[in-house]
Design brief:
Blueprint lengths: L5 H10 L21 H4 L1 E13 L13 E12 L3 H6 L8 H13 L9 E2 L2 H13 L11 E8 L8 E11 L2 E16 L7 H5 L4 E8 L3 H7 L5 H14 L5 H20 L8 E8 L9 E8 L25 E9 L4 H12 L2 H4 L12 E6 L3 E3 L10 E10 L3 H17 L11 E7 L4 E2 L17 E2 L8 H10 L12 H7 L9 E8 L19 E7 L15 E7 L14 H10 L5 E5 L12 H16 L12 H6 L2 E4 L3 H10 L3 E4 L19 H17 L3 E4 L21 H18 L10 E4 L8 H9 L9 E2 L7 E2 L8 E3 L4 H11 L9 H13 L4 E4 L4 H12 L1
Parallel strand pairs: 1-3, 19-20, 19-28, 20-21, 21-22, 22-23, 23-24, 27-28
Antiparallel strand pairs: 1-2, 2-4, 4-5, 5-6, 6-7, 7-8, 8-9, 10-13, 10-14, 11-13, 12-13, 12-17, 15-16, 17-18, 25-26
Helix pairs in contact: 4-5, 8-9, 10-12, 13-14, 15-16, 16-18, 18-19, 23-24
The structure holds 2-acetamido-2-deoxy-beta-D-glucopyranose (NAG) (6 copies).
The site of one 2-acetamido-2-deoxy-beta-D-glucopyranose has 8 residues, from helix 4.
Length: about 900
Amino acid sequence: MNTTTFGQILEAGRTAGICFAIISWSNPSSSPPKFNMSDLDLIRVNDLLVTVLLHPGSRWPPKGSKPTAQPVHISLAIPHDISGAAKFDDLSQSINYSTLASTLRTCLEGSDNSTEQPAFESLEHILFRCFDLLLLPSSTSSPRLPSAQIRIVQLKPPLHCKTLAVEAKATRDGASWSLTQFRHIVNNLECQPIVGVNPAERLERQTVRINITIDTPMPDAFRLQKHWLDFRALTRRLHKKVDETSYLTLEALVSFVAIETLWHLQSSSGDIAGYDPKVNVRAAKPCALVFADSSEVEITRRFEHYQMNLPSELELSEPSSSLSEDIHSIAIALGSNVGDRFQNIELALRLLEDPSSVVTDRSVISENAFLHVVNTSFIYESAPMYVTDQASFINCACMIETNIPPQSLLQLTQAIEVAVGRQPTFRNGPRVIDLDIILYDTLRLDTRAPEDQQSLDNLSGHLVIPHPRLSEREFVLRPLVDMIPEYVHPSLHKTLHALLSKLELGADGSSMDKVIAFPRYPLPTDTPSFLGVDPVPPTLTYWKYRESNSTRKSRSKNKTRLMATLNATPDSFSDGSMHNTIPTALAYVRQAASADIIDIGGYSTRPGATSVSVNEETDRVVPIIQALRSVSSAINVDHEGDQVVQEMPISVDTFRWEVAEKAILAGANCINDVYAFTGPQNYFDPQTGSNTEQATEYMRRMKAVARKFAVPAILMHSRGDAGMNKDYSVYDYSDDAAVIEGVRAELGMKVDAITKGKGGIRRWNVIVDPGIGFSKKVEDNLELLRHGASVTDDKLIGKGFQERKRNPLVGFPQLIGTSRKSFLGVILSDTRGKSTDPKDRVWATAGAVACAVQQGALIVRVHDVEMSDVVAVADALWR
Ligand SMILES: *[C@@H]1O[C@H](CO)[C@@H](O)[C@H](O)[C@H]1NC(C)=O
Ligand SMILES: *[C@@H]1O[C@H](CO)[C@@H](O)[C@H](O)[C@H]1NC(C)=O
Ligand SMILES: *[C@@H]1O[C@H](CO)[C@@H](O)[C@H](O)[C@H]1NC(C)=O
Ligand SMILES: *[C@@H]1O[C@H](CO)[C@@H](O)[C@H](O)[C@H]1NC(C)=O
Ligand SMILES: *[C@@H]1O[C@H](CO)[C@@H](O)[C@H](O)[C@H]1NC(C)=O
Ligand SMILES: CC(=O)N[C@H]1CO[C@H](CO)[C@@H](O)[C@@H]1O
């Protein structure tokens, strides 16, 4: 028998264009059953380059049906006792590698010209042919090996991964051979999902490299079935699906890949339980760690690990009653298009928060059931889409925390739909309000009979969670994104934010407008009182607005709203005691008919203003509000414009809950609080974020008033009464001006405390005010005005990777007040040497108001109603 040395092999290989490389054979599972040199010794041929003809389907790009030439690497490991050759350095006891290599090449490439080149259907096909050649050679000159391990690596695999391979071990068995190991390998499948918990990772896709091996414990069963793995379909499926995910953890992503791989095997090979494949997935995020090469997770899974998730068993049944022990987090969508839509929605929420008043059956809603609305979205009006004479819908959503299990919750929401529809003033049948349970923790649930589960629409009283149409409905997704943008849809494996951005929206981004509604006060006498809940006010009026941020300026045709101030204070810095009597107040409002809302205050927040008791403040404000609300029943009944006066929304400018409550009962529709519900003593310390006890009490009481009366609240940024602290340098890290970051962080903290958690006020009722002129230097005021829109941008705020979070002020409408403020006076004196009283700053105010309009403010607050001309021109220019 001819033999050769290793040096000769390398030489022969080089001249023959055969590529040998010494790499280690990774085979962790091979452990010898008994001590025998031929089990311990292996002869290897590594990465023998062979060009084979492969049928399409197993390569990229597919080209017709003609097989094409493909390079593959073939590696062999042959158990062979080398002790004889080693001891005596005896060629005759060695294996002639050259023969092995040329046998394979000749037979696979058909390169001896006598035979036509064979075409292969798959990598498995090549592999099995190699075993035939090595274990059962037809020519006696070839060595007849007892067993071999072979790996075939496809060098030009389908897109997205570096290599594909099959690897197997076979033993000769009389006149045939049998497989003892079989493995498919996908190496370095490269995907670009959103993955990770750090805020920066939520923003951008990152590369994840995935290795998959599929081991087949019963390889001969697999071989006999001949359902070869379609690598191209597998890698294409995984690449597509992984790119769509946005998991928070690599662990979840790896598990997803394992499930998808098993599903693919199931759907492409039929009964895979017959050979029970084992999938090993390793995934690495090369970019995740700064000082390590990558972070990596490895798992091994079989079908039995995913019994609950097999396609046929996807739908879980109602979870056991143990649920009632726990707190669950649920998203509910609300919609209404009949009657007083805002009133319908508020009533539905109040009933939801008091479940045992609606459902009295204690087997459905148990005595210890609780339900809190802990977060709300903005509220939207969707333009009617097809039937334009149909009333448009308003939509919103809320997050609740409850111990009520899903089925009972469904009964509760259905009972509320009926209850709201039955109320005379809420009239028009049971569909004046829709409540849909959209998400329940991360549950997947379908209570319908299996044959009905295809339908996306006809739920007919059944519960399907997540809601089957969630991913295609902007009017559901958008409100959810206001609250839980990073929630990963349990079956689509994408965040809600990703699902929303995938919707194809019109040119101007959305068919929905945000709206803010002002309730009517004093309450009309026919306002229904319902069971134990506070009466829900009807709607006085509502405003639509388009979201605007620093990059996308709103193009809504609706004008900026003008808020005209009416100071009921003798010491008011801007208008003295001019309006401090009822007749002058009435006259003022009559001539201010071009305003959209009147802001009435009885307590000057000007630095150095004298303090005023609660009673005195109430006595200044309440009579004026009463007079405005009763104007048409008073003497001047025929005065032109009194209808306008009576219907004019009024906000009460106060930080005191007692005054707010009395003003609303008298007819105010909105609270405007310069301390954002924390009272004057709450000097905000950005270092400690501390709140005084007094601030906590203010917060509790003001929230209760705003909630009970369902009025909008304007929350202003300030740093407490004195307004002394103008230092924003702790926010210097931001790419925006430090003062902008400061307003986002400090006001954001208060807005979060006001809107979130049990007893919070509805997000749709909040307007934010950056507080120009309060605790800010001149340049900071200018910066806030110049880049006003960026205060509510959707971006991360905070310092340091861990602390960064989404801007808590994202999406809120803004009120911007610049009128007559002293920073304007400073500019006039600095540039013109002109010293001005507040009253002399009208033209200066006009300049600032124009900028506020350009920055997309919902409301500009002014002392001089002539500013409506400025707004009209600025609107024409920019809105
Ligand atoms: C190995 O076998 C081939 C053909 O069977 C022969 O041509 C060659 O000389 C042998 N090599 C050695 C080193 O004996
Ligand atoms: C995948 O396999 C390749 C080649 O064996 C290796 O270099 C890489 O580190 C592996 N990646 C993972 C995530 O295991
Ligand atoms: C919806 O399904 C129910 C039974 O599940 C059936 O009675 C009803 O007719 C269906 N409605 C429509 C509109 O298909
Ligand atoms: C809304 O509430 C949910 C549930 O408590 C919470 O996970 C989420 O962060 C909140 N969203 C916002 C924007 O505050
Ligand atoms: C501004 O709004 C547009 C459209 O809604 C959005 O694509 C963009 O990301 C927003 N920009 C910022 C900074 O929030
Ligand atoms: C273009 C637009 O949105 N116009 C709206 C302005 O506001 C009024 C009153 O809310 C609506 O009726 C208009 O449709």
